[in-house]
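Issue 218. Parser rejects a valid record. Input:
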Amino acid sequence: MLHRDGTADRAAVKAGDRGLASSLTAALAGGSRGLPGQRHRSTAGADVSVEVFDRVVAGVDASHFLLTPAAVVRARSLEDVSAAFRYAHDHHRSITLRSGGTSLSGQASGEDLLIDVRGAFRDIRAAADGSTVVVQPGATIRQVNARLLRHGRKLGPDPASEIAATVGGVVANNSSGMACGTEFNSYRTLRSLRFVLASGTVVDTSLADADERMAAAEPSLHSGLAKLRDQIMADSGLSAEIRRQYRGKNTMGYGLNSFLDFDTPAEILAHLMVGSEGSLGFIAEVEFGTVPISPCAATALVIFDDLEKATRILPVLVDTGAATIELLDAASLRVVQNDPATADILASVDIASHAALLIEYQGQDDDELDERLGNARAALVTAGAPSFEPTADPKQRAHLWHARKGLYAAIAGARRPGTTALLEDIAVPVPLLAPTCASLQRLFAQYGYGDAVIFGHAKDGNIHFLITEDFTADGAVERQRAFTEDLVELVLDAGGTLKAEHGTGRIMAPFVEWQFGRRLYQVMLEVKRLCDPAGILNPGVLIVDDPESHLAHLKLTPVVEPEVDRCVECGYCEPVCPSRDITITPRQRIAVRRARAAATARGDAALDAELARAETYNSVETCAVDGMCQTACPVSINTGDLVRRLREQDASRFTQAAGRAVAGQWEPVTRVAATALTVAAWLPAPLVRGASEAARAVLGADVVPRWTGDLPAGGSRRAHSDGPAAGKPAQAVFFASCTGSMFGPAEGGVGAAEAFRRLCARAGVAVVIPPGVDALCCGTPWKSKGLADGFAAMAERTVASLMAASDGGRLPVVTDNSSCTEGLLHALAKVYGSGEPVPLRVIDSVDFAAAELLPHLRVQEPVSSLVLHPTCASTRLGTNEGLRTLAEAVSGKAVVPDSWGCCGFAGDRGMLHPELTGSATRAEAAEVVGGDFEAHASCNRTCEIGMSRATGKEYRHILEILEERTRG
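Output the parser choked on:
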């Protein structure tokens, strides 16, 4: 629902149409069965939902528009999509296609039927040599490139959002990126395309007779495209204007260059689909030609006194053959400097009006790279440029690129709470970039956008600029109207394009005719009419009748909680979230909080209550609070912090008191748990399972863990009598995890703690064990459940004990479970205060073993092949390098699956909600089972249990395998 000023209220959501749910479900042949209006989770057919909660979370994308769909369809197959298209045609409905939801121009949201294709369309099939790859639309660019890396190749398109941007969106928008320019974008690297037309017809240009098949199935469309082709080819003026429009990056309107570049209607249509933003059909499968990865590269950040000097030197840099040239203005540099992860890059710069160019040169070998760097230095010296100091160090280069790739969301995340970020994307000829940037800055000043930021792909004359707007303020929408019209005039007067790589979307749809003129716009209208005569596909996007449609559905962003107010809903977090396929994602958890805040502001208690009921399971109970979202978030939001606080708010006084009591009796509690697991392993499985399910039914599924036959027997006490050997001073304090005490090792194994002790003895390294260790814990079980008092009590007791055992912090503390290592760091922050100096040094056993033990060990019998499961904690801690070092020490073939991700076991979460772990591990488990590995390893006991359950293979701690293979 829209306000009269064009803004969209997150709480203006109508009740679901049960009749729509029923008829749409019936129309999707082979679809799920269930009560009308409910979400159906069958794997056999499409999921259909009109529930308010599902529609609210599905409607949010990365743009500054907000449209809430009437129904959400999670398509499972091409047949589902075709059936939905036919349904929309027959019932006069409209359809919006959604994959990653990272689009910035509003093209991924709609008010009617939203078809989400991300979940079931993720296949990636690379050729034997990697020269081509066939990909479905739900796979992210990063996932595809991970498959291609072993071949030394990658996809051409390289958007900064590659962690979350899916192939479907990248092709539908003809997104490019930092290095690909127009030579290696989707349009140029497309080899074949399989797509569904509005009529439901499937076209597959990989078939030799694709054009003949299309002519038979869609004769009017085939002949109409041929007619348009002939008209354009016969008109030299039109042909010349098309070539001018596409001499550089341009994603405005339909790609009319297809009529000049290809002959057959099938190929013309396949390339018109590129950049069509879901308004001509559904892109079901893409075959790309891949590009080689340059093995040698060097990157430099060159600082200039001001933006004018940085942009004036661009033609010189372009002539030197730089692979990428990225522009950052002063506001961008301040964001980089204020980000703790990148602050060191600009630590010595007192930023005033500065600007910078991030420049990269590439080569097939060191000689070629050195030659290019030499030419660049000479050219820059002649041009009077500042110091040019490139680095070829992979870590330093990655550090520089990390600052650039997360820049949009980081800038947007730094905005004032309650405001909305708007990102524009223009391109002009490179020689005109300097005056264009100067004119832009004058426009910013004229319209009061004092926080505007300019950055982008300077090599292509393609810049992005970000402004923030409070659409609740008087005159905000009118200011946006006037600013946009002046911007359009500025860019078109410079011979540029209003959209270079983000797609026309809603934001520039009213201005397509302004850029192309009446005659070429008529060609676009005819393309739309031929492909989608009923207008069912993505109305309001790319082609519109309303000249002010870009001022409608403007997103309002209410202030909710400090943990998440920085969120710009970019979606970078979603691919790493373990609950993404079973319930919702971090972005969607935040969207719910914002919708509830809007409902409260409106006084809509009924809507707030409905969202709250659904939020309990979907958002709170199935969040693994693993922090993986923070590793992907450009503004470092850990949605787990929010969920933990919500759990704390929901916990009763009795629950908090019980948490404190358990913390005070941790030793007997762990022994009871271990004994129960051991007894359960001996009892008949049906008896134990029945008792478990009965308790869950009475006390709740989020309280009582589900017992399953794959759980191990209980573990042994952690206390160990051995102290440092005589004459050998201790080198570390060993704090064994209580996880290994409750859950015993895999059958035939010794467990991580015993393996670590044996390895230390074998390497001649003495360690001490804290007195009373069985009563201690890092505090994670309390923190993850929001039991604040119990966490505080346990943290204080454990830290005090470790301080004494470590001789006041002189010795490092080593622990054998990655989640416990991270947990100890949280405990220290709780005791000493976040950001304050901490006297204890905590090291994960993997890193300690790689640095201190491995040099003194000898592998006697290597493992033929080993598959690794890094954990969310090892990823956040940065210990995966040590994990790989140990794996490679025991095996010449150590592999991390391409589809690796958090297993979602999350302490006891995998027992409380096994469906979470089942969903989170599905892709990785399939890859592991499809391989042939002698050993399976991880570095956290509960993750090992989760992966063993998922794969049917016995996962063990990497230390156990190292100990086993270094025995004399």
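Fixed in the parser; the record now loads. The chain is about 45% helix and 10% strand.
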